Structure formats: structure tokens, C-alpha cells
Give the backbone structure.
Amino acid sequence: MAQDIAINGDNAVALAWRQIDPDVCAAYPITPQTIIVEKFAEYVANGEVTTEFVCVESEHSALTLCTSSASAGARTFTATASQGLAYMWEMLPITAAMRVPLIMAVANRAVSGPININNDHGDAMAARDCGWLMLFSENVQEAYDMSIVAPRIAEHHEVQLPCMVNLDGFVLTHAIERMTVLDTQKIKDFVGEHKPLYPLLDTKHPVSHGNMDGPDYYYPHKYQSVKAMEKALEVCEEVFREFKEISGREYHLVEEYRCDDADYVAIVLGSSFGTMKATVDLLRDKGMKVGCAMPRVFRPWPAEALAKVAEGKKAVVVFDKHLSIGSYGPMFPEVVAAASDLDKMPKMYNVIYGLGGADATVAGFEKSLEAVAAGTAEKIHYLGVRQ
Amino acid sequence: MTTLAIKDLQNLPVRLTSGHRLCAGCGESIIAKQILMGSEDDIVVSLSTGCFEVSTTVFPYTSWNVPYVHTAFGNGAATCAGVETAYNALHKKGKVPQNVNFVNFAGDGATYDIGLQALSGAMERGHRMLYVCLNNEAYMNTGIQRSSATQMGAQTTTSWPGAVSSGKKEFSKDLTQIMVAHNIPYVAQVSPHNWRDTVTKAQKAFACGGPAFINALSPCPRGWRFPSDQTIAMAKLGVETCVWPLFEVVNGKYELTGESARIASGKVEKKPVMDWISCQGRYKHLLSDRWAPVIEQIQTEIDRRWNKLIKLTELD
């Protein structure tokens, strides 16, 4: 029976994993992810899960242990944020290249320095080229739902890639929201039994994992991951469709809000999608034909779906909660590339906002979009920064 | 338990095949084969990045007839621990019913230096796994750079002897003692020349039911500069000079083994470190009069460590 509860984002992720009951979890605490491991440790202590839970001495070992555990054939998950993800970085592309479908929640937080514990997307964006699937959530419900769909996508035999489930630090991890919990048996049936490919622990059929590649194999192996990512677009849609059947909630590669007849579209990631929807409503009331969209699936990059969103628009404004200093926000060039095949390309703008937990407000978004409509916006705008 | 008769050992399954790409005379494959003979049960091998790893698993080939996994350089212990954790999860659910042992092989760079944190963590957490350090006393895979296992006075490509340098300035770190300080059930030092000692210790390590650490002296003809047919002789000399004592620490109790036990009991005379230094090109520069005091310093430190080890064996 579905049931509505009040819960914060971290606890929602932990709850999803309690219901999935994975074989192995190894994690290292870091703000604002800590609640996930604390809560999960409590489930372990109370015998509510069968999971082998390992309190490793670092995030590097957390991802290492999870990677070899998944290679061994265990359904495995972990969680981290910010410096933890940075410390894992060496392992991120290795995990992906080993094609192990482990799941990692990332409680998005700014990366040092200066040290800052608040939300932005600096951690996830620095990990985006590592070959992981990346899902983003707008609210606590979605953080829970994405945790449930993630293993289905990652473990699909034609995908076999690790997956990050991103939720904004504090804004979602620590904020209590109303959420509908799914029946545990329903989740177990949906996620299904883990059927690992070539597990190490099949000792009768020994395999070598993590071999060395020369140039004649390295590049082809990377290309195989490209094909897996392409397949993942299809698989995400399939899994979202099936998830709707058990939850009634509908997800897409790109979530759209009032985009159909819009002249202007704002693209935004994570919890700010909610703020942007409120901004869109406000501006619509003022007569501006504006909509907004969020790439739910950030890797694989849903270029085709985003091109459709951009088609026929006067301008597309990409709001990035991270900055490649000396260039643009990380999402901006990718949206530009996605729209570049359109017969008539919209004007493209980039707004940088919310770094290190700086306020992301309706008023700020409103001002940025009005400047675009008025033709006074700059190509890249640093919203709300004190100069 | 496997007997230690040579005719029985040679009938054991070949877990590491020939045809790998290690240098002629490398000690690593010899040690690994001896260690693997110590496990009657199935085994999963993990390797830290290093000579052994790059030489045995160049895709699309593998020298491993047992499940094998490698992830990175500084995390071999965590890699091995991950497989063991997965085993615990799947074994209790009946999905992997057979008994399986777990071993990680790593060089001294991956053990003494970059991988020390992961090793310490895995040992403290009590994973049922054996960690074997193939100690060739420098970063040989990247071309003979100094590590914290490199002995004082040795020439490496980052500790050159020169007009104002006698080679590496520092004594090696005593990693085996650091592992003993983790209070794990089994710690030992081995040398490939004494295969009976090594296989016996591997059997004990796999049977100890918890984390075990074995530090193995692995002579390296390229890095130490000696002929490649002298590997076993070199390993033996390391023990005979007490540069590399053979001993084990079982639940905290120290015991000397092999030649080291015989030296301690006075049955065999301890050889001077000069015997060790004079047959390896990495110490060639020390033989000039100018650096004679360095050899004295090395002898003094080896004596100090040896005497301390004997004292430790006298503790209850």
C-alpha cells in the first residue's frame, strides 16, 4: 500500500535502499550525505536489511570496495558528496570501464576551495566525463523514485554502467517534504533479482576483471561504453514507463513545463526546477510566453529531446549551478550542441547561479529571463553575485 | 591440508600460468605461486597496479586461471575486501556455497606508500583476506624509483649516488611491525628461497580466519643489478645477513623461522651485510672508501633491528 510520509531527502534515499535490500553497502560519511549512511547503519543494526555494511576508512576505499563487490556479483550501493566524490575521482572512470552496475547517491555540494558545505553542482559536474549514468531529482519524492529506478537501468544487460543519483545538498537532503512511499514488495518485484554478468565469485568460470589495455583495445572499449550509453536512453524510457505502472508517477529523459507554446525556455537541473516552475507561472501571468525544462537524465545526455524543447524558441537560457572558470557553465555548451542542428537556432544564454549555496530565488530567475526577453541579457550572466 | 611434499605440490592446480611478461629472474611469480599453493579452497586474486599486474593481464590475455580483479594502485586492500564482502553477502544467501579465499598481491610502492591507508583500513576492519607485499624495495614498474621500503645507500633513479650523495639517505620503513601493531591474527615475513617456509606460512595465513599480512622479499635483477639466474641465491642471502629475517607473528606471538631461527639459536653464523651489498650493483658506489661509514651505519641498523626482533620473540 502506498503511504504518504514526511521525510528528508537523505532518509528517503536510505529508505529506498532499505526496501531494495542490496547485498553490499560501503560508504564514508560526508555532509550533506551523512544521514544516508547513518540511517542505513541503523537499518543494519536493527536487522531490517540483509546487507553487508562496511564502514571504510575513506571514499577512495568506499568506491573501490563497492566496485570489486559489484564485480564479484553483489548488488551494491554507496553515497557521497563534494570532497568525497573528488576523492573517489580516480576510481570513477575505472568503475565505469569495468562495467559494474553499482549505484551511488550524490548529495550535491560545492567542491573546495574555499571549503563550503552548501549546495551546487560542482561535484557532479566534475564527475560527468567518467562514464557514469547520472540522474537528477527535483524534490524528495524524486530522490526516492530515482533510487528505485537506478538499479533497473544500471543492471540492464545491454547497459551495465554505474549510476549516480543526484539530489541537491540541504535543499533536498535535509528538507522534510511530503512523499509517497511504495510498498516494499512492489519495489522488490520491480527491481527484481540481480543477475550479474561474469561475476568473480563464479569460481568455476574464472574471469579477469580490470585488465590492461593497449591503444588497440582501450579505444574500442571506450566505444563499447558509448554504445551502452546510447542504449541507456532507450532503457531509461522503458524503465520510467514501467515505474509509472507501479507508482503513477511519470518521468522522462527531459522534464518539460509549459514549453509547448513558449518563446523562451529555461533549462535547469535539480531542485531549482521547482523554483523555475514558480518563476514561469509568475512570468506567464505577466504575459511572457516562457517555459522550463530539466534533463532528468544528464548522462546519457538526452540531446534529441533537448533539441525538441529548443525548437522554434526565440531564446534558450541555460541555468548552471557550476562554472568552468574561464569558459561557461558545464551544461551550456551541451545544450548549444544539442540545438545546433535546428533549422533556426534560438539565441542561447547562460546564467550562472547558486554557487556554494548562494540563493536561487524566483526573483533572480525572473530578472534573468526578463532581461533575455528585453534583449538586454549578456551571453553569460553571473546571477546575484556581489562584485 | 595440502602436504608439503614437492611431488604433491607440483600436482596442485596451476593458478598462475607461464607465459606472463615478468622479467627473467623476477621473484614475484615465484612467490605468488608459493602463496597460492597455501590455499586448498578456491581463491580470488586481486592485484594492485604494478609490475605483477601489468605483466599478467595485458588484454586480451590473462595469466590467471582463477578469478582475478584489479582496479588501481593505492587500493589493493580495498579491492580484495570488496570481493570478500560480496562473498559474505552472497554466501549467507546460499548464492555462493563454496569456500573461497581472498588474496591481494602488491608491490612495496602499493603497500608501504600509496596503499598504506587502504591496507590499514582493511586490516582494522577484519576482512578475511591475505595481503601479500612483493617487496622488491623500489618502484620497479616505473623504472626503479625509491620507495619507503628502499634500503639506505641504494641507488635508485630518484636517489642517485653522486658527488654529494651516497644514494638513498633513509633506512627502510618497518612495515611488517606496523602490520603487527594492527593486532591481526597473522603476520609474517617470507623469502622465495625457502619455499617450505613460505607455503607453510601461506597455509596458516589462509586458515587464520581473519586478516593476514605477509611481507615477501622479492629480488629484482633489473633494479638491484644482479644476474637474473641469482634471484633465489639473492633472496637466501637477504635472510642470511638478517637484512630480511624470516619470522611470523601468530596472534601477537613472535617466532623466528627457517634460517633466521637457526641464526638466532647460534647454529648458523650471521653473515655481514657487506656480503649482501657487494653483490648488488645498486650498492656499487658504497664500496669506495668515501662511503665506508654508510656501510657501517647500515650494519648497525640491521643489528639493532635483528636484536630487537629476538627480544620480541622472547615475549609471551
